[in-house]
Amino acid sequence: MERAASRLDTESQVYTNPASIATALGSAGHVDPLVVIGGQEHRSHVALVHDYLTQRGGAERVVLAMSAAYPQAPIHTSLFDPDGTFPEFGAMDVRPSLIDRLPGLRRHHRLALPLLAPTFSRMYVDAEVTVCSSSGWAHGTQASGRKVVYCHNPARWLYQSDPYLEGLPTAAGGSLAMLRRPLRKWDHRAAASADRYVVNSNAVRKRVADLYGIEAAVIHPPAILGPDGVSSPPAGIEPGFFLCVSRLLGYKNVQAVVAAFADLPHERLVVVGTGPLAKRLEAAATGNVTLTGPVEDGPLRWLYQSCQGLVAASYEDFGLTPVEAAAFAKPTAVLRWGGFLDTTIEGETGVFFDRPEPALIGRAVRQVAASAWDPDRLRAHAERFSAREFASKLRGIVEEESALA
Known about the structure:
This protein has helices at about 1-15, 20-25, 60-70, 115-120, 155-160, 160-165, 170-190, 200-210, 255-260, 280-285, 295-305, 320-325, 340-345, 360-370, 375-385, 385-400; strands spanning about 35, 45-50, 75, 95, 125, 125-135, 140-145, 145-150, 195-200, 215-220, 240-245, 270, 290-295, 310, 330-335, 350-355. The chain folds into 2 domains: about 1-220 and about 385-400, Rossmann fold; about 240-385, Glycogen Phosphorylase B (Rossmann fold, 3-Layer(aba) Sandwich). The protein starts with a helix and ends with a helix. It is globular. The protein is of the alpha/beta class. The strands form 3 sheets. A 7-stranded parallel β-sheet has the order 4-3-2-6-8-9-10, with helices on both faces.
């Protein structure tokens, strides 16, 4: 095991060269496993795998919900930044891969993209059932027992790469462009290796069917953040604003939301999140827009409680934030796209706009502000996406697969 670890440490340096990665992937897009993750005296019943735990987003909240359903399950991942992700992971059995030792990757996980296919191909998890929370990497993990993939979206870095890679250094983006063909082969092999595929929305279900020919079940992620819990106001923000909670990436369309409020001088916008477009958005923001950066759950609860409504303009695979807003009895002005079609009911929990354009966003925001919303209906809608419901459905699938292990 120690010799294998040393070998992988050495080869990780080689894999920063695109040609070397392509060679490692091979024509079939496969790398032989080197590292066994597990090796316990007693084989785990369930193990969890996630792409990387370096940020605070919807996928990471799903892993927290999975861990709540299986609190004894270890969590395997490529990179683990305890300061960058949710603090709850600090008390869990998180087992990062060897590339976690490479300088700078924890804080800048997208720079690790050329290394992640070889990394997950080398993971071999020893458990009756391995549940992979995947946006394109974790499903490549090799498992001794049954493998269930919970797919947030097919690999955005392969199939929607231009907006995803915005803000990434040119060299890293160029490396991925060179590797796209072998990585797509690797990705299809990884998808085919699953015993059961589960997806987070009907939009992702269609993408999985179109790309991989796999018919997947839909289990909606839970809304973990709700009104029960500590609420603390951030400094300098008064109630009555509109809220946008998003990573600051190109495909999230936060730039269009900020631009919309330039034409809404009597409304205020608070943007929560971080990402490579932060400086650009700060420069474009008018005086009625506040960018907070990332916030803890306590201040985020206060922001949901104190806003008029949420604005969600991103190309989302699931679209969790309208459900979180509904849990606080708040409506959403939302893009008519993808997972938002599962998480928003037009006229009952929100108002749709058809394209992420400032004029259309502004019109929807004005409609939300001018409409009366039933708080009981909003809360009842959020209940459909409870952690209890998610855990029950996940356990059902895991037990079905465990019976076949």
